[in-house]
Each structure stands twice: as C-alpha cells, then as structure tokens.
Design a protein that fits this description.
Helix content is 58%, strand content 0%. It starts with a helix and ends in a 24-residue tail after the last helix. α1 crosses α2, α8 crosses α9 and α8 packs across α10. 30% of the residues are buried. The mean pLDDT is 96. The chain has 10 helices and no strands. By secondary structure, it is mostly helical.
C-alpha cells in the first residue's frame, strides 16, 4: 500500500486529481506491485499512465524508483524524508506527503504551488518567499505542529477552487475582508 501511495504522489505532479485517479485505477487493474511494474515494459507503462503530465519522464522515474525500492528497501518505501527525496522523481512535497499518508508521520509541511501562493498572499510568511521550500521553513517556524498535517489539504483545495493563481475569486472568498491581497470592488 505504501508503494501505491508513493506512485500516486509521483503521478500527481503537474496533473489534475481526476487524471491521477484514473491512471492509478488503470495501474491497479494491471496489478500494481513492485514486481509487476519492474516486469512491465516502458511502452505499456506509458500507455497505462497517459495522459498524466510529463508521462514520459514519469515512466523513467517510476521504473528507476521501483528498482531502487526493490533492491534497497525490500519493495517498501523509505521511512525518512531524506531518503525519499533521493528517489528519482520525488521532491520534498511528495516526501512530506508520503511520510504523512504512508507512515502516519508528520515530519514537515508539504508545500506545493497552492500552499506557496496562498501563504504569501495571506502574509503568513514574515517576508515574501520565492520557493516552496523557503515557504515550508517559514511556515514551520510559527505554525503549531499539530496543524502541519492538515494545512496542505486545506490550502490545496482552496487554491484550486477559490484563490486561483490568475483571477482569484476574491468576491466569493470568505477571507476577503482579512486578506491583504484581496481584490475589492
């Protein structure tokens, strides 16, 4: 199951949730195990995960990561963020989410483009940050640890539906009166 969590996270990068979900369903129909992925040729894997974003690169990353997991971790996934980010195609956001979901361990805040954008708009960081990793460090500096697990889930949905990167829906937002970035009529 932890392996499937990691693959789902790898597929989700730059991909809409519905597309990731459909790709994971197709993978499961083909038997989503470390061995089945290693035995599958790249073309078949590509056909199964298409149309996820950057699917050609993800085929390579999935195959490389899966081989490492079999060789080094007995088919399981690493238990630390430091080891997870060493895997091809796995960045800090994925590593923190994998720790949270697969190992039920909150070791940091998973900061993606939505969390990065919104926390900067809301001035939840002392000074504006340019990169998600800077945002993560700034948030972890003041946000109580018991909120680290849920902040990603809350802000991602908010960022996909309301606080959009371009033309945010400030007039529909419940935070419009307190948001420093709100566009007021």
């Amino acid at each position: 199951m932890r392996y499937q969590v990691l693959l789902s996270l790898m597929l989700s990068s730059q991909t809409k949730d519905q597309v990731t979900s459909a790709a994971m369903l197709r993978l499961r129909e083909h038997g989503l195990t470390v061995d089945s992925i290693l035995q599958m040729d790249d073309a078949t894997l590509g056909q199964i995960i298409y149309p996820v974003g950057f699917w050609r690169n993800k085929v390579k990353y999935i195959k490389q990561t899966t081989a490492i997991l079999k060789q080094k971790y007995g088919g399981d996934i690493p238990q630390t963020v430091e080891e997870l980010v060493q895997l091809p195609g796995v960045g800090p956001k994925m590593a923190y989410l994998a720790m949270n979901i697969a190992w039920n361990s909150v070791s940091g805040i998973a900061v993606d483009t939505h969390v990065h954008r919104i926390t900067n708009r809301l001035k939840w960081v002392k000074k504006e940050t340019r990169y998600p990793e800077e945002t993560r460090v700034a948030l972890e500096d003041w946000l109580p640890r018991d909120l680290w697990r849920e902040i990603n889930w809350l802000l991602v949905g908010f960022g996909q539906q309301t606080c959009l990167p371009v033309n945010p829906r400030c007039n529909e937002c419940l935070n419009q009166d307190i948001c420093p970035a709100a566009k007021r009529p």
